[in-house]
Amino acid sequence: MFDEEGIRKRVQAELSPKRFGHTVGVVHAAERLAEIYGIDKERARIAAWVHDVAREWSTDTLVAVSEKVEVPAGFGGIPKLLHGPIAAVLLRDWFGIEDDEMANAIRFHTTGRVQMTTMDKIIYLADAIEPGRDYDAVGRIRELANSDLDLALAESMDDTLRYLIERHKPIFPLTIMVRNDLWERISAREREATL
User: What pLDDT, on the 0 to 100 scale, is given for residue 73?
Assistant: First the structure.
């Protein structure tokens, strides 16, 4: 259905070897999570290939392109985050794929969004737990991802927020809303299980 080899080659041309290696890892992690959670593996792989295609563009380029395409409110405040919304546009413009679910998973892979779909969660998590990632909480998050997508996502967001806070980095307000919503859902689920 998709020209995965053509997409892979175009993405590779845009990225350094290190970033491309990360992307390959995200593709493998996304495929495995898609299999566990019952979504289309090919679509998850394509979204994973494209998620960071604009990641190494300069800030000036990201900002210039963001002024010409539709970018969700607030992303311009942290220009580094613009690569997600821009990659979502490139899914359509470069690769001819018009798939809102894939585009949204790419668009929000660094921030999350409230009411995330399974595809959104998988691309976000695959980015966080691909085999090349090495940080203190990654082992626990990988383990959780095998059995509880929401809990893995919530733990991953908490870990990212701790990282940003410790380094005095800006935090995208949407991510806090997503994190709070996830923990609220998990708490409600746990309350229901004890009734």
Answer: 87
